[in-house]
Design goal:
The complex is a heterodimer of chains A (90) and B (570).
Chain A (H helix, E strand, L loop, with lengths): L9 H20 L9 H15 L3 H31 L3
Helix pairs in contact in A: 1-2, 2-3
Chain B lengths: L1 H25 L4 H26 L4 H17 L16 H20 L5 H17 L17 H11 L9 H20 L4 H12 L2 H7 L5 H16 L4 H14 L2 H4 L1 H10 L11 H26 L11 E3 L2 E3 L5 H13 L20 H18 L1 H20 L14 H14 L1 H17 L8 H9 L22 E5 L17 E3 L5 H11 L3 E5 L3 H12 L3 E3 L4 E4 L1
Helix pairs in contact in B: 1-2, 1-3, 2-6, 2-7, 2-14, 4-8, 5-6, 7-8, 7-9, 7-10, 8-18, 9-10, 10-11, 10-13, 11-14, 13-17, 15-17, 16-17, 16-18, 16-19, 18-19
The chains are: A mainly alpha (90), B mainly alpha (570).
């Protein structure tokens, strides 16, 4: 995915640093065991991934992985109260 | 009813024709912005008509219907209908077209089969409409809730949809009008970004599917309309429209809800960031002054009225804020609120798992899976590639930030930033356009989102279905709550010291007189009922002392309890 000889531009370094700051904030703000399902942490990881992957083939595959993961994360959180609502009686 | 229907059709035709006549004079060179302007002008026209009728005491089906017929006749005589042109169908794409049509059809069904059921709407938004329609004018009496004096710009549009029929069966159409405005606004933002037409339409369709927006649009609540006018302002600012055009949605928003003003710093920043772009001017600045003047009046009216009535333009807000039975409404900026609101959104609310989806955003963000998954990823990628999108995001972030700085971190605050998912929807549309596999997954998520937003969680499903099963003339939440024992047409008094849902007491055709009692105890309540010649009373008091007073009257057989809220005087 990444050529080790490749040099990164200043803006790429800044992007990775910004994403790392976001992850650090989430580590401070949230319990460690919940980080794997933290929306902002996952987005920050995707951001870092995008910096390294550019628009190569790996980007498309990686984006699908993140997309499927975030979709599953949302639905696993959202569907239980929704299904309960559909079947709940007054 | 038939005459009312005729009046409504004539008035809507006249409003559309008059709007078109003005729109022709002020449209710009940008087709996407012009569609947005048309919808804004129509809202200004009908809101202005209701406001004028309310002030003049002409807020009746007959007066507005006759005015509509006269205006239509005049416009036809002037040949304004000859200026109408068949609009060219844009290239929307199959997916966007299908989503927009499905959501549109569902909204029509929701308008017909739903009746107002959201707590805030029943407590303080809609009772004032009932009083206005019953009196045929704006009234000093608007109910007992402390929030009745908040700006009521959205209620003007709702009044337009009830006054002709003197019935609230179509009241949710007001929200549908703002949904159309939001759709046009997101499309215009996409067009200004230089996205292909299909991608812009897909973004707009995704925004229409945003759960909270979708549910609010048919729930008689004003946060979706605020989001729509904020997005309209964003579209105009991002397209560098003339300040006279930009000021129209800003003024309209100020008259709908004060929270619209909180988003303005971001819009101003966006306008400044686009200063390198040529100004998008109206065909005639002179003609733009008219709609802007009406919009300014619509925005200022409520603040001037409150200044005159209560000595405070922002009544009931004070410099210390407002306490509503345990909920504190914040006044002014607070950094700790900003931190708590951002953390709450990012940590818990955005995944919509804290509660079933309700139109008041209780413990959920209501942004939906499209925005949270594909939208966020597409936005990150877009921000890395597109300078214009980065500028747009800075404007959005500033608006979201200033709004979250100004509101308390209570259980309902995400509704104040309901415009925010629009930029995520643009991200989702970009991603879907870039990858077929991503598009397939996002569209599958859209289908789930469509299914889970059919029914607002304000009513449990059996009650929602019971509501829809009622004949349309009687459709109301009345049989579902404690007022079901109230005889038809019998006036009722309300003795309440807490937020009470009272709108349904008026009946869907506003046939019942509701007397709001401003009394200190049960004895005063009885005296006031005798004076007003009312036998039934709806009681909702919080203090144990007041409850004991009522219980004493029941024990003395002065009152008879029909249920735990409704009583009748013996």
């Amino acid at each position: 995915m990444v050529d080790p000889r490749q040099k990164f531009s200043g803006s790429q370094v800044a992007e990775v640093a910004a994403a790392m700051i976001l992850i650090c904030w989430r580590i401070v703000d949230r319990a460690a065991e919940n980080l794997w399902r933290d929306w902002l942490v996952l987005l920050s990881l995707y951001w870092i991934f995008s910096v390294f992957a550019g628009k190569q083939r790996a980007w498309a595959a990686g984006t699908m992985v993140f997309l499927a993961g975030l979709t599953a994360l949302y639905l696993s959180s959202h569907l239980p109260p929704t299904l309960q609502f559909w079947t709940q009686r007054p | 009813m038939i005459l009312g229907l005729g009046g409504m059709i004539a008035a809507n035709a006249a409003a559309a024709l008059a709007t078109h006549a003005v729109w022709r004079r002020i449209r710009t060179a940008d087709p996407a912005i012009d569609v947005l302007l048309f919808l804004l002008l129509r809202l200004v026209a009908i809101s202005g008509a209701v406001m004028l009728a309310g002030i003049l005491g002409l807020l009746t089906s007959t007066a507005l219907g006759l005015a509509g017929v006269a205006a239509l006749a005049l416009l036809l005589l002037l040949g304004k209908h000859r200026d109408l042109r068949r609009p060219t169908l844009p290239e929307a794409g199959t997916a966007a077209g299908a989503i927009a049509v499905l959501v549109g059809l569902r909204m029509v069904l929701q308008v017909w089969f739903y009746a107002p059921s959201s707590g805030d709407a029943l407590a303080y938004h809609l009772p004032k409409i009932a009083e206005w329609v019953r009196a045929g004018r704006f009234t000093a009496e608007m109910g007992l809730d402390p929030c009745v004096s908040f700006p009521a710009g959205f209620e003007l549009v709702e009044t337009w949809w009830v006054v002709f029929l003197r019935h609230d069966v179509l009241i949710e159409m007001a929200g549908v009008e703002f949904a159309a405005l939001a759709f046009a606004a997101v499309h215009a933002i996409g067009a200004a970004l230089g996205l292909p037409s299909r991608t812009s339409f897909l973004a707009a369709a995704f925004y229409l599917l945003t759960p909270l927006f979708n549910l609010q649009a048919v729930s008689c609540l004003n946060d979706a309309p605020v989001a729509a006018v904020v997005l309209a302002a964003v579209a105009l600012a991002f397209s560098r429209a003339h300040p006279m055009l930009l000021a129209i949605p800003l003024a309209l928003g100020a008259g709908i809800k004060g929270t619209a003003l909180y988003a303005m710093p971001g819009i101003a920043l966006l306008y400044w960031l686009r200063r390198d772009k040529d100004l998008l001017c109206p065909s005639s600045a002179r003609w733009a002054a008219g709609p802007l003047g009406v919009a300014a009046a619509l925005g200022l009216f409520w603040y001037v009225r409150n200044a005159l009535w209560y000595g405070n333009p922002f009544h009931p807000m004070t410099p210390q804020g407002l306490d509503l039975g345990g909920v504190h409404v914040q006044a002014g900026p607070r950094l700790d609120s900003l931190g708590a609101n951002v953390a709450g959104l990012a940590s818990r609310l955005v995944l919509d798992g804290g509660h079933r989806l309700q139109s008041d955003s209780y413990r959920t963000a209501g942004w939906g899976v499209i925005a949270v998954a594909g939208g966020a990823l597409g936005l990150i990628q877009g921000l890395r590639e597109d300078r214009a999108l980065r500028r747009l995001a800075v404007g959005f972030a500033a608006s979201v930030g200033t709004v979250l700085l100004m509101v308390s971190p209570d259980g309902w605050y995400p509704r104040f930033v309901l415009f925010a998912p629009a930029i995520l929807c643009i991200g989702a549309a970009r991603l879907a356009s870039a990858s077929r596999a991503a598009a397939a997954l996002i569209l599958a998520a859209a289908a789930v989102q469509f299914a889970t937003t059919c029914f607002p969680g304000d009513l449990l499903m059996p009650r929602r279905l019971a509501l829809a099963a009622q004949p349309w003339r009687e459709r109301s939440v009345t049989p579902l709550f404690q007022s079901r024992d109230l005889p038809r047409g019998e006036p009722v008094a309300v003795y309440s010291t807490v937020r009470s849902i009272v709108y349904h007491l008026y009946g869907p055709d506003y046939s019942r007189r509701v007397v709001h009692l401003r009394v200190w105890n049960a004895d005063e309540m009885v005296k006031a009922m005798v004076r007003e010649n009312v036998r039934y009373v709806y009681i909702d008091v919080s203090s144990l002392h007041r409850k004991a007073d009522v219980a004493d009257l029941v024990r003395l057989s002065r009152l008879r309890a029909l249920n735990d809220r409704l009583y009748v005087l013996n």
